[in-house]
Task: inverse folding
């Protein structure tokens, strides 16, 4: 049994139009790496050029925000569900 | 690839403008719930949200992930989709900024209303390109509200 990564609707076009992807991983970082290796077009929408998760991209393991766990080192086990949720941000001036 | 126009009822557009006026000189924001099909996209309902950027609300807005999840859940319950977002640019053009681009995903429609001195002016809609390099303008097709129907 693998870890399930739910692909948010706006990014499904970059993940073979799938709603979720199952990967083998021990941590959140490994799971996201596995998904973006499989679907390379996803990477730029989740990670910035320096390889960090974009500031507006939030990741949850079974509804718990990984910022309050061990971030990308958060352990995952078979059957866990990882969700990717954006914060929506913007504004008039750069 | 050409982008189909974003259809929106004129009453809903008036509500977006009213929200921008209400929060002026701060930015307003909200979710667009609707339907996305082959070659068509329509806003069916708005979900006005609080701007969480207390530190700089005149030129920034933020919708928290909790509010995003609430908007997704609300859309699902209404058998709609979360198809995009709207926000205002107080005393600034209705064009996306670099900051907007850095914080966007493709697919979503991003409506921007320019509110000049408290009065709504231009309204535009945008979609981020696949490579994140720029936005494509998305035409807005305002649909007249049938008389007698709310």
Result:
């Amino acid at each position: 049994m693998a870890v399930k990564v739910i692909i948010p609707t706006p990014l499904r076009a970059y993940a073979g139009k799938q709603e979720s992807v199952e990967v083998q991983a021990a941590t959140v970082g490994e799971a996201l790496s596995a998904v973006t290796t499989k679907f390379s077009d996803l990477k730029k929408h989740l990670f910035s050029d320096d390889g960090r998760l974009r500031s507006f991209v939030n990741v949850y393991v079974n509804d718990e925000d990984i910022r309050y766990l061990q971030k990308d080192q958060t352990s995952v086990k078979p059957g866990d569900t990882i969700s990717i949720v954006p914060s929506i941000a913007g504004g008039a001036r750069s | 690839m050409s982008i189909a126009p974003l259809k929106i009822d004129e009453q809903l557009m008036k509500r977006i403008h009213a929200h921008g006026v209400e929060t002026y000189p701060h930015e307003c924001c909200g979710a667009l719930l609707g339907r996305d099909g082959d070659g068509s996209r329509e806003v069916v309902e708005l979900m006005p949200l609080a701007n969480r950027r207390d530190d700089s609300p005149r030129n920034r807005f933020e919708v928290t992930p909790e509010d995003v999840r609430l908007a997704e859940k609300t859309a699902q319950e209404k058998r709609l989709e979360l198809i995009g977002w709207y926000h205002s640019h107080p005393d600034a053009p209705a064009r996306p900024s670099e900051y907007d681009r850095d914080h966007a995903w493709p697919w979503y429609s991003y409506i921007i209303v320019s509110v000049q001195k408290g009065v709504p002016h231009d309204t535009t809609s945008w979609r981020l390109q696949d490579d994140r390099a720029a936005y494509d303008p998305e035409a807005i097709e305002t649909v007249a509200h049938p008389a007698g129907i709310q």
About this structure: The beta strands of chain A are 3-6, 20-23, 57-61, 64-65, 81-86, 88-90. The first strand of chain A starts at residue 3 and ends at 6.
